[in-house]
Design a protein that fits this description.
Elements lengths: L10 E6 L3 H11 L5 E7 L2 H11 L3 E5 L7 H11 L4 E6 L4 H9 L4 E4 L4 H12 L7 H14 L14 H11 L4 H8 L3 H15 L4 H10 L7
Parallel strand pairs: 1-2, 1-3, 3-4, 4-5
Helix pairs in contact: 2-3, 6-10, 7-9, 7-10, 8-9
Length: about 220
């Protein structure tokens, strides 16, 4: 049986936001994108978590601050229930604390609510493709945070299962580079980068690039300054 190309399948998105006008507008605008299918919407964190668990979307747009269950708590619950779901946090501010908490709980990154619909649609495509929405400067700050949190001696180094090339790719991911930039820097194709990232996640039994970076920092695999 011939496998269908991934590109033929629309990205299944769920929108969770308590501001009705914003949510409805976002749903309406995203519905005009040929490669994105909005499969549902919810107005609070509890309903959003329930819908995500039932519908298993590819991408969840999740407001940081909502009634009943915060976006951060919902993010954690959704990642536990549907590890494959990619989560984009929606926020009115770019406070580092929000981003740090979101990524720590499994989010692929965040978007400001005043982003254009083109930026939102592109963000959905980027995270669905397995990449993160973390700027290089934010990546550096996040890694600094995780370095401070990491324990001095872990005793085990399961990350040694990674090849030298995979560690090279992981170091560049940790610097906030996307697949295209990593490919240019290592003189390899973008598809090869994707395959390396996929192998890294499979070996470490993780679900996102930032989870892999956090793990690597904690295990002291990256030799970052």
């Amino acid at each position: 049986m011939t496998e269908q190309p991934v590109s033929t399948e629309p990205i299944r998105a769920l929108v969770v936001d308590d501001q009705e006008l914003f949510r409805r507008g976002l749903v309406m605008l995203l519905s005009s994108e040929a490669d994105i299918e909005v499969i549902g919407e919810a107005s609070d964190g509890v309903a959003g978590t329930d819908m995500a668990t039932t519908m298993a979307p590819d991408v969840v747009l999740l407001d940081v601050r909502m009634p009943k269950r915060t976006g951060i708590d919902a993010c954690r619950a959704i990642k536990e229930a549907v590890p494959s779901a990619k989560i984009i946090m929606l926020t009115v501010s770019d406070e580092e604390a929000d981003l740090y908490e979101a990524v720590k709980n499994g989010a692929a990154g965040y978007l400001l609510k005043d982003s254009s619909i083109e930026d939102v649609a592109q963000a959905i495509r980027v995270v669905a493709d397995g990449q993160s929405l973390i700027s290089p400067s934010m990546a550096v700050k996040l890694i600094d945070e995780f370095k401070q949190m990491s324990k001095p001696n872990r005793g085990q180094v399961p990350g040694l299962r990674l090849t030298e090339r995979e560690l090279e790719v992981l170091r560049l991911v940790a610097k906030g580079l996307n697949n295209r930039d990593i490919a240019k820097q290592l003189f390899i194709s973008e598809n090869t980068v994707k395959n390396h990232v996929r192998n890294i996640l499979e070996k470490l039994q993780l679900h996102s690039r930032m989870e892999a970076v956090m793990y690597a920092v904690k295990e002291k695999l990256l030799d970052l300054p």
